[in-house]
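Standup notes
- HV: blocked on the assembly model, inputs below
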Amino acid sequence: MKQDRLIPATIAGLLAGYSAWTIWQPGGSAVLLHLTHSLFAAGAWLAAILALRASRMFEPGVSSRRVWILFGAGMTALATSETLWIAYHLVGQPIPYPSLVDILWGIGFLPILASLVLQYRALHVQLSRRQKLLVLVIYLGLLLLALFVSLGYILTSPGEVAVVQLLVGAYYLIGSLGVAFIATLSLMYLRGGLVARPWVYMVGSILMFAIAGLAFSFGTWTNTYATGSNFLSAVSDVSYLAGYLLAAAGGYSQLTLRLPAVKEE
Amino acid sequence: MASSFLEEPLDSAGANQVLCADLSLLFTLYITRLLEAIARTGGRPLADQFTQQLNLYAQQHGWSVLTGLSDLNELRRRIPNVDAKVLWSVYLAYAQYAQKLARQILGEPLLKATLTTMLTNLPPDLAQINAQYRIIALV
């Protein structure tokens, strides 16, 4: 099977397998919880290693090298956060809020966002105003939809949601969608080229993190988030896993870019 | 300057040699800029594959026989001393192939931007040569 089909097929297979596990939960909810966070950690470490290796394909001083280093650094922080979560649970210690797990997750997201902004700037993206407006409208639509759903709950349940939780949720949502918007513009500029392949996965990854973050925030506000307990939690967990896997696929795709022979006319 | 020789008949050995040098410089500049753009966005291994593919194409299309040079890299050290019109047709074909390869790698918008920048930044004498011989062309 060709690589451009193998990667999506592998990701789809893993997500289907994890979704099936979430539905039937063999071994119970505790097993599912540990499996979920082990998969998150494995996906994040894989994404970090592949991104840092991908950075070495570019010469020192080239912006793309910094793009991949930043992305790898961010993924390393997220991977450390996920690993710490597992460590807390293995020793049976309760996790305070905010803990090192939350702080590392929050900090780790910043270099990831920065890497995609740097990629946009390094490419000197030139798109027509119409193309930019079209993408902007789509992302504003997504943001408004998310705000409509969130505000609907907050306004009908006054006092239920803490200000800190609101701010954290808004940070992830606006940050993810804002950067996904910029990354989509970069991707449109690279369209049709071999060099666009890794960025298809990167944009997909950021969008998955946005969906996961929104579902997680909403689940936290409504006190309904618990791995394997309901549909909202499943959406959040599957999206987080998809985000990590797509980020890893981006690095792998960059590392394995090969130029096919050109047919002469 | 090179442009002053353009009007001279090519049967003059000196003019022929200067035109060969100018065309070679233009072609080398073109390939180098494409390589840099590929290395910047796709990485050094992809740029190396681009060079290999282009050298393979040259090998299959009589580069050594036509120019007496072993491969395209030798252009950095030696200028072929052949009929400038023949050399021009060789560079034109190779440049078109290089552009096809670069389009596959960079995609149309990025390739177009790279070529536009390249054309804008050409020194005036090379710009004049390119205007006449169209080695670097926006499609």
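- HV (later): unblocked. Chain B is about 70% helix and 0% strand. Chain B has a mean pLDDT of 88.
- Next: hand off to the docking folks.
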